[in-house]
Amino acid sequence: MARENRPSNGPAELAPALGPVATLRWLWTQLTSMKTALWLLFALAVAAMPGSFLPQRPVNPVKVSDYIKANPGVGPWLDRLGFFDVFAAPWFGAIYVLLFVSLVGCIVPRIWVYLRELRNPPPAVPASLAKLTGYRTGVVTQSPAEVLDAAAASLKAKGFRVRREADAVSGDKGFLRELGNLVFHLALVIVLCGLGWNALASFRGTSIIVEGGSFSNTLTQYDEFTSGAAFRPSSLTPFSFRLDSFDVKFTPKGAPSVFDAKVTTDGATKNLEVNSPLTFGNTEVHLLGNGYAPVVKVLDGNGNVAFSGPAVFLPQDGMFTSAGTIKAQDGRPERLAFDGLFLPTVVPGSLAFVSSFPDALNPQLLVGIWHGPPKVETGTPENIYTLDTTGLTKVTDADGKTVRARLNVGDTFAIPGGGSISFTGWQRWAKVQVSTNPGLWIVGIGFVLALAGIACSLLVRPRRAFVRVGAVEGGTSVQLGGIDRVDGRPAVDAELATLASAVGISSETLATTEGDPA
Amino acid sequence: MSVDYISNLAMVTSAALYLLALIAYAAKWASGRALLTEGMKPSRAQVDADEKARFGLDLWGRIGIALACLGLATHLVGVIGRGIAANRAPWGNMYEFITSALVAVVALFVYLAIAKGADWLGLPVMLLAALGQGLAVTVFYVAVGPLVPALHSVFFVVHILAAITAAGAFNIGAIAAILYLLKARAEKRGPVKGYLAKLPSAEVLDRFSYRATLFGFPIWTFTIAAGAVWAQYAWGRFWGWDPKETWSFITWVVYAGYLHARLTAGWKGRRAAIVAIIGVATFWFNFVGINLLVSGLHSYGKG
Ligand code: HEM
Fold first, then answer.
1. For residue A89, what pLDDT band results from cuts at 50, 70 and 90?
2. B208 touches chain A (CB under 8 A)
3. Which label site among A358, A397, A510, B95 has the fewest CB atoms less than 10 Å from its CB?
4. Domain count, chain A
């Protein structure tokens, strides 16, 4: 692809002249050269790879700590070098910042060149046309002026800009190509700015809601919450909704086929499905996950209800073997606690500790039982999914063996030493994600511009056409030829053929050009 | 006979037809050996051999394209039948992806061979198609099943349609790049003999590879954009550096590198061709390798 007007991207590898200004200028020339852009692009591609092979902290922090534990040698080093959060690592950032500096440094000068080219008239007609694409010549009876008029009119009709000389006409067209290229590159900058703004101003939080439960959009309702530096909690859109029911269906092989949550908000019932989020102003609510909450009732040693309701258990595998805890802090004379497994489907008679199907066809609840003296309320929030066993001991039977209970729905287990636990049923819970993406529209505009730009830059072919006349005996000699500034010879050929008929010479090409089957 | 069964049968048949087409093109390649080279002063026997070679080239070429067309027809029956059997767009798992992407590759080849005379693509494209379909029906096959809920989206369909189209362009581009490398090496060694002589010149191959890749690039850009829109609908985050997203990005950056390589002095030709081949390698790695190696939101390949 030969372009005559590219700003010097040529080799500037000569040793830099001494002096700070000259050195800086040399560095700048290097940075904005095409070769550097090329290497930066490859560097970006390679730098992204570890992010797909190593566990990444923002996606799965547990996997990262497991990995470091399993690889005590390299793990901590990889961690120090940022390999567990590649896309936020300084070296990754350095590559794309350099790339974008290079891009701006390369593209902005081209804008001026482009504008100058737009303002300048089409180029002068070369001295000899014989070497150009589609060269043709002939003698016609019209006067030179008539030929030139006809040529200029034909070129104008084809959308060329035209310049008239005494004995020649030149035309050029196809300026959208370079415009497209400039727009494409600048649009990439817009996309980057949009992503940056989005990272700064957005938030994302998740919350687990059991069927029948409600959510309202305040910070305290979130289980997890992350936000950018420019996010203000006061900007949370106020809304709330209730999860009325949550339907999940599975194929016979255990793959999920339907997730359908019915929610009520402001008195209206809506469906929340995987591909149809709820929106409240600029805030979206997505359905991210689901699981089971066994419903239990715990009586303490005094016979009072110490806990009653659903306890959220977290799925551990694809068959929804779920683990969780039940804490009866208010139990008297002793408090009680349970660490449990919920198995949605147990093959009758099986004593396995895993579920064999994700749907709740034959659920069982397995619990280990702990007891201890009442705890002083400290007010510090406790993780509801793990059991802090300090001050607790396992309940044992008369023989001193630890007690485990295996309950079917409806069963009650009497705890040795007092109290009982009943497994009364189960409910589903839904994990929702609440988020805003305030920079998304900028990214969207950038992407649309980039696509429009690259379409122009790939489809439009800049080309030039020239006609020269000379007076000969009995008429006018005409020569014409063109330049295709990208390798798209057929386009300029077709236009030259039209031009040739317009001025009245044979539309056959004279100069033999190599065939191009592609 | 269920639609499901017909689809499977058609897929296997197409793999066999591509294999036969591959053999025909190989025979064509072989019969090109006796062709006269430009500048040769041929003996009587050599002229006879040349004539026979030309006849063989023509015959095997026709057989090859006929088999490729038949293969494509049965392949289409397979993919469409799969869609009917599953009652959705047939792009829910790796088996369906690979078979659909190969439809795009073969369809593009058949178009180029018939409309543009690019019959020389036959051997490598049929090699890819036979291998790919063969692996699809043996290793990657899964029975028809419903889509996991995240895939129920128009954007998903648009996203995959674009990905498959880009696959066609990138694969054809890379094949032309490989042929370019072979031809350029042969040209450097002196007069080109045999079948390579029947290929277009290295310069034309280079340009062909460039055009195909150039066609694919904006479509791939669009694929990524449509995927981001879909991810925003499904998961509320348009980009999360999921392994699949990471490798789409890598492919995109490598191809941007390719386009720049073509504009960089000293990178035209050989090095640019190598970048095009690396590009297609990252593309296939994303389609196949990532599904097998890494788990992420996109790894529905495991069903
Ligand atoms: C994010 C990084 C970049 C991407 C994705 C990218 C992408 C592209 C693409 C796809 C093209 C091909 C368009 C065509 O052939 O007309 C192109 C052309 C070009 N790019 Fe980039 N580019 C990037 C960075 C840069 C940088 C850093 C520079 C400057 C050093 C640069 C300068 C150019 C130039 C001069 C062209 C030539 C257009 C022509 O003359 O045909 N690009 N770029």
1. very high
2. yes
3. A397
4. 4
